[in-house]
Amino acid sequence: xxxxxxxxxxxxxxxxxxxxxxxxHVKISLDGMPKSNRKTEHDLIKQHLDDGDxxxxxxxxxxxxxxxxxxELAKKYRARITAIFLDLPMWKIQEQNSKREKQVPESALFKxxxxxxxxxxxxxxxxxxxxx
Length: 132
Prior knowledge:
Blueprint: E1 2-7, H1 14-21, E2 26-28, H2 38-50, E3 55-57, H3 64-76, E4 80-86, H4 90-98, H5 106-115, E5 127-131
Parallel strand pairs: 1-3, 1-4, 2-3, 4-5
Helix pairs in contact: 2-3
């Protein structure tokens, strides 16, 4: 069983990679859920881990604090924890964002960039794949 955390600011390509690389994983994303929140996300992850599913959390997961709740839950299930970290330059993210159907304001992109904390194995992550 595996839990994959996509990590990166909006427009970095998390959803594209999640779909292409992990088509058989259960994808959990707050984007598609009306009135969704972190508790909703956490409950869905738990439900699918209960079922023995491989899960991919397609969210920004910008900070250690946000990731820690998912990691703690996955450890209870003895799931392998992987982070896919999209560490792209801002010009590339801005370029990709400009091609999105639902563009994110540039001010929000820069705010996310300031909040972004690089994922580290010390958080309890088994493997980190960084994409530049």
